[in-house]
Structures are given as structure tokens and as C-alpha cells.
What we know:
This is Thiol:disulfide interchange protein. It is a multi-pass membrane protein. The protein has 18 helices and 23 strands. It is of the alpha+beta class and about 675 residues long. It folds into four domains: about 1-165, Thiol:disulfide interchange protein DsbD, N-terminal domain (Immunoglobulin-like, Sandwich); about 185-275, Immunoglobulin-like; about 280-550, no CATH class; about 565-670, Glutaredoxin. The radius of gyration is 29 Å and the shape is globular.
Amino acid sequence: MALLRFVLMSLALWLATAPASAQPPGKGPHVRIELIAETDRPAAGSEVTLAFASTPERGWHAYWENPGDAGLPVRAQWTLPTGATTDPIRYPVPQRLTIAGLMNYVYEAPFAPLVTLHVPAEAKPGDPFPVRVKLDYLVCTDQICVPEKAELATTLTIGDGAIPADRRARFDGWRAALPKPLGAQATYQRDGAMFRLGIPFPAAASLAGEGYFYPLTQNAIDYAAPQRVIREGDRVVVEAAAKAPSGAVNGVLAFGDRGFIVQAIPGTVPPAAASGGWLGATLLAFLGAVTGGLILNIMPCVFPILSLKALSLAKSNDANAKPRGEALAYTAGVIAVCLALGGALLAIRAAGATVGWAFQLQDPRIILILLLLMTGIALNLAGLFEIGAPGFVNRAAARGHGGAFATGALAAFVATPCSGPFMASALGAALILPWPAALAIFAGLGLGIALPFLLLGFIPALRRRLPKPGAWMIRLRHILSIPMFLTALALLWVLWRQAGSLGLILGLGSVLIVALGLWTVGVRQHKGRSFAWLFALPALVLAIAPAAFVRPVALEQKFAHGERFSEARLAALRAQGRPVFAYFTADWCLTCKVNEKAVIETAPVIRALAKGKVAVLVGDWTNGDPELGRFIERHNRAGVPLYLWYAPGTVEPEILPQILSKSLLTERAAAR
């Protein structure tokens, strides 16, 4: 019936629009398709993602799985080894094309549907694994349509499942274009000639771009009729002309090129009035970011850097100091780094990678450089050497600008591993807002971090409460070197976790070289000799050189009180009716480690979880696993920590606070 409908529509289109001189189409294929496997050496019993990398010829288009008023979806016939199976094809968000009043859901630019191939557990290492598929599909211009065929094949070899880095990045880009599961149950209602769809969506996670609902269920709505997409509180309402909806209605809610898979059941959907768009959500997220940044000042991952500013603030109490200029310079340094990191994050995500907040700390080379920086700061506070800068830097610092700006920049950079209260949802919203609004949220985070020092700089009454400068500052400086040494030690441990034994050896060697170089500087300074830094420069350059050889290694994941997180394991445990506590952590996240040692791994919590038969799943995001990144993002979070509690019989998990308590977990475990 669909084929007859399409033939009649195509004939009508041809007669209505084609000029008498129209030429027949040139030789195809008009959509070139290449079959690509994410790995050429899949492991037995594993899953392999296959891509149909498709490139339409200019002026031609292919069709989505629901082609709309006209067109046909692709049909695939697989020839696979015994025991192998494939899942249904997953499509990226399509485009809309209206021709002669008919709505078509199409692809006019390069796109890549994905398929999951299941390799049987009986496959033997070293054996060839041929994969063949025959595709029948339709391609069209705005005047003519042509059926095409493609016979594609690739031969894999059963192996270790290794994925080349370039191919992983390419597939991550294709996966990023797929609509993501929404997770929450939607509801629809037919109100006379109106189809109204209510979709739960958190108010803090604002949506960017023009909204549109692409139905997968046939005959639910009139495809060509205009749609009205409205944001109201914690839901999105779609209004369209109804046809004959019945039973479940499925589809994709798209905002720009970002899509969410929607599954709706019949129910009652109240009408919605037009909202103020994303501006209100941006303001809410901005305030959340400011509050989160303010709270971040007391988080353990930020406190060591605040010790540097404590000394300069005490000095600002001097009548000759310029506290306002110093406070503004510090604030400018913090906000500049937050904007730079936020802009880099948005650019990387726009390129198709799945990364989140603190993405730079997933690179062991950055960890090595931070290790050397923390070591240098600790040795400086301990009195081993003094920082002697060029004249123009000294003049800037004397005016209260240069040193304060650098301190603020460093504080913001080191603060990125943390995700505290209010901050997590704000940064999660930033990832789906228009880029100007997202950058405003990142700036709000920087403003929150700098706010205490900004207030001290502009309110003399607060500054008068600080003690007068004196000899105590030298003793305090030596004491404050201790948390800096501890920070350096923690970074060395993170480097070992990320880059293995080789990374640990290179890190220790670099620290030793830096220490020797700075000791040389201190000796010459104490003797009153000039050009003290000149003799240390070669050592500093040599210490940074190992960063070129540090590479991430596969993490050895052993969890004493849980098991490795995977969505398949989560689904299996929930199908058994068990409560599940899933938490997502990283070795560079100090907040995560504090929660684990002070709460999750304590004896009372372990006993309570075991007594309540609570399954514990651990997602380690230290090296930026893209699959974990996508799962974290689906819960409107930009990074770790993330704590989820799945109670039996519930659809959605409870998102727990970023600061855990023992009672929080023991009470839930006992409630089973």
C-alpha cells in the first residue's frame, strides 16, 4: 500500500512540476553508501557498531525511517555468520522537505545510520567474520525519484576488540547525531482535531533551536500541518493536527540537530501557553552557576589554591595596597579561564566528541603540567625560592593586577574537577543552550568562585576584619605549603592511574628535575646573585618535555564494593527487581573521592546496602569514556560526581545530592 501511495504521489509530482525539457537522472548511485565497522577485530561475544556512511549527491535526498507523506524507508537484508544478529537501524535526526504540499523527512547532507552487530560467543579468535548486506532504498530530487540498490560487504577478524583512536572519534561523532532516549514517559491526547503531546523535560535543561516532533507512528498526526512546540515548566507540549492516533505513539522530539526519543501513551494533556523561551531558563541556570561557584570555594579541590589568595588579601589591608584593583584582576582571571574552558568544551562537543566539564583533566599530559605547577607553588610557599619576574610583570603586580589575575586563573583551572550543589544542573543546562547563553553560565560560575574576594575588595568593613600584615604571614605561608604538597601528591596518583607505571616514572622524574632547578634558583637568590632564573630554565624545559611521551592506558578497574557500570547490567538488575545505587566518579575528582572514603566505602553504608540487597554499579570516567559521558549527559549533568538511586518499580532514578551523607544511603537501603 505504501509503495502504491508513493508511486501515485511521485507521478503526480512529476506531472505537476517537471518541465517538458526535463532530462532523465544521470547514472547513480545518487547516494553513495560505505559500510564501516568501528573495529575490524571484534571480540567473541561482543557488540560491534556498524555505520552506513551515506553521502547524497548534490540536489538528491534519502529518507528517514518514517519518510513522511511520500518516499520509502531503506530495507536491509543481512547475510551473517551463524549465530550473529543485528539490531534495528538507528537513524540520526532528519530534515524536513515540503514539495507540493507534501511533507518529507529526509537527509540532504552526509549522514550515517548505525547498526549494532552481535558477535556470537562461540566465534574463535583469528577466524574471519564476513558481514554482507543488501540495501534497497529510494533517492529523490524535488522532481524525480529513483530506486537504488547497494550490496555492501566487509570481512572482520575475531580478535581483541581494539578500536583505533581515529575510528572511535568518527563513530562518536555519528553517535552524537542520534536522538537520545528521553527516559521519561510522555502522554498524548486527541482533543477534537488537535493532537496534543506532553513530554516531561526538566526546566533547568533548556532547549535550543526550533522545536519539531518527528512521528514514527503512522497516521498519528498530519505531517504537513504546522506544529506548535511550547515549553512550560518541566514539560514540553507539542500541538499538531490529529489524524487517527491510537495506542502508543512514538517519535523524535528535535531542537535543532539534537533529538530525544519519545514514547507516549494515551492520557490527559492540559493545554499550554507560550513561554518566555530559553531566556528565563538561562537566567535560572546563571543564578545556579553563581551559587555553585560560591559554594565551590569550600570544596576540597579548590581550597589549596585559595591559600595563595589569603596572603594577598591580608596584604591588601595595607593602606598602600589597592584591594579593588586586585579583586577585579582576580575576578577577571577566574572568569577568563571559565569562559575559555567553557568555549573549548562547546567547540569539542560541536565537533562530535562526548566530553563534559573538566574534560582537560582526562588528558594525562595536562595532569603532568599541573603536577609540576603545584610542586613549584608548594616549594615557593615553603620558602625554597622567590618568584622574580621581568620588570613589566613586577610593575603590574605592584599595581595589584598581574599576580591577582594569575592566581584567579589558576584557581578556576584547578576548580574544574568539582561539581557541587546547584552547579551540576546549571552546567548540564549549558550543554543544550545556545552558545551565548552557555557562555553566560560559564561566566556565572567564574563570578561565583571570585565573589568572596570581590566583596572583600569593595567592602572596607570586611577587609578591616582581616589581621594586619606581619611576621605571621611568613609562618602562614609555610603552613599553607602543606595542602599544596598534598595536592601535588594527589596529582601524581592520578597520573599513575591515567598513564600507568611509565607515567608515574616520568612524573617523578619531572618533579625531581623541577625541584633541583628551583633549588638552584633559591641558592642564587639567597646569595644575592643576579640572573638566578637563567640557570634554571634548561631544567624547567627538560621537566616539561616528558609530557610529549605520556599517553593514557586502559584503567585496571577493580571495585571492592561494587561492579563496573554498563547500561546492559543496569537493565538486567532492574529487571530482577533489585534496588540499584549507581555512582559515577573519576580519579581527578576530589569531591568524588571524599564522598567515597567518607560515606560510600564506610562499614555502616556497606552493611546497609548488603542487607537491603542493593546492587552497586560504579562508572569510572577518569579517562573520559564516551559511553559514560553520554549516559551522564542524559541525566542533564556535565560531569562527575553523579549519584543515582533506582528504587524497584520506578521508571526514573532519584538524582542524589553531590555531597552525600551516610544516612542518605542507609535510609534508602532500609526502605526496600
